[in-house]
Amino acid sequence: MTSSEDLYAISADWLRSLEVASSTGDSKLFVSHFLSDGWLRDLLCFSWDFRTLSGSEKIHGFLSEVVDGKPRLEHSGLRDFKIDDHTANAPSPFKLPGPQDIEGVQGAFTFTIVKPAALGRGFFRLTQDANGKWKALTLFTNMEDLVGYEESSADQHGLYEGRKLTWEEDVDAQFRAIEADPTVLIVGGGQSGLTSAARLRRLGIRALVIDKNARVGDSWRQRYPSLKLHTPAYQSSMLYSPYPTNFPNYIPKGKLANFIDSYAVNQELCIWHSSSLVSNPVYDSSSARWTVEVQRGDRKVFVHPKYLVLATGSGSPYTPTWNGMDEFQGALYHSDFHKDAEQFRGKRVVVVGAGNAGADICQDFVAHGATEVTMVQRSATCVITSTTAEKTHFKLPLPDSAPIEEVDFHNNSMPLALLLQLNIAGWTQHMKMLDKEFHDDLRKAGFNLTWELSPGSGEVGLDGFLFTRQASGTMIDIGCGKLIIEGKVKIKQGQEISHFDKDGIAFKDGSKLSADVIVIATGNEPIMKTARALLGNEITDRLVPQEVMGLDSEGEINQTYRPSGHPGLWFASGAFLFSRFFSKRLGLQILARELGIA
User: Fold this and answer.
1) pLDDT digits (tens, 9 = 90+) for 188-218
2) What gap in Å lies between CA 232 and CA 577, rounded to an integer?
3) Contact 216, 264 (CB under 8 A)
4) Are strands 118-128 and 134-146 parallel, antiparallel or unpaired?
5) Would the pTM of this model clear 0.90, i.e. be above it?
6) pLDDT in tens, 58-100
7) What is the residue-wise DSSP string for 237-253?
8) Nearest-10 Cα torsion for 477, 483, 484, 487
9) Vertex 220 angle, CA 217 and 221, to 5°
């Protein structure tokens, strides 16, 4: 099975048989191509939503559901299956971790969809069953484009081929058309909002972005000076626009802010700066349009988009309340407002919180000469070193020369729930072994570690915290761990805070930490709380589920880039790699609604 010819033959035989089942609408035959505990992940091919089904019975039930008088499999009409052997995702061997390694053949394929008329791309992972037959462990089906409305690859500007407008005149005309009648209004000009706007533009959809800041990138630029990305540059690139090859692997926040600023210009995105919602938007079901009042600088403007996309980031700062906080006589603020550790040189610092932000800020205070830095760890933290994260999470599953779009496709072909199962089955244990000495030293310093979301639920590791808690409770270590081990950052762990007083923090065991500065690094409020403030109760109460991000019962991300439960309302959120890939799915759903086919 090692030769490329064998890999291709196995893939081609299985795919040819699968197409017969699909083109004839035979759900039972189609499901017979899966292992009994196999997985189907579908993005927009069989429904206008994201679905993950596990096990033959659930997959068969989904494909047999009646849509417009036909079983779903027959109604969608996937056919013309062809191995995609000219890309980095051509047939290849794979091995997945577990008590017994899972080995087999994986690869991409293309197909067409009858209803709606669309082009699709899929990915399979085949293993042999007990009888030696090749079956699907996972099958990924994904809509790529609607026929006749494919995403454009380039713009044509300038005075040539009969065009009468210069580039500046052309862009200005486009902006005026967008401002006069935006099809989509995107609230938030961070990376998710800009990525969505860039994608929609390529699909021919007019998108206007409003952002409360005076300049693109300020959401990064205004944060604490030592901030940098905790994911490598190649994984954190912007859609259509990879970073220059001489950028650092972990990009500082100022450099990132400036790049995002230039990105908005280069992608010709229409953005209103210093703009925010004045009141709750109102949706008119008869016209299928929103009425949105926007404070744009010093004037108020009404816009009437068909679609409203909330791309407001990770939520407002969350600050727990303890008695006596107003009595503390030193500096007290949330980590989101940390600006300058230098002004506290020679001071005693307490940071409440043991995640990424808390670690960064402790590191910043040590670097700037604080006399004493103590981290209060209220609950155990999932910690992985950046070196191990690069090996286990950020290492490209494909050759280094593979476009990031191929990497994103490959990564998203894996059902998230299966990935967590594999972590519990042994992959998390493997990652822990790579960091064993580091973890042992952290424990000796009094730092508490976990890889479970709750006691006894299984070691889902970093992925579980990313998918379900937006990385809350995690630390991808880029230096603070060494400071903890060396005693330069002290740990106060295992005791609940009782109250504050004028000198610092008192704990329920009677102990106390005196401080000149206290930083509350306790993360952010749920995105839905921000949404409720912007939209009001009437609209927000209609949203199902009442959660943005986190996993639903099938293992798909809640709300984000998928139907919200309210017509014309969408959410765009998540890490760079998430926005790059799912912005296309958002664009396709909006385009389909514009065409009247969804």
Assistant:
1) 999 999 999 999 999 999 999 999 999 999 9
2) 11
3) yes
4) antiparallel
5) yes
6) 999 999 999 999 999 999 999 999 999 888 999 999 998 766 7
7) PBTTBPPPTTS-SS-BH
8) 170
9) 75
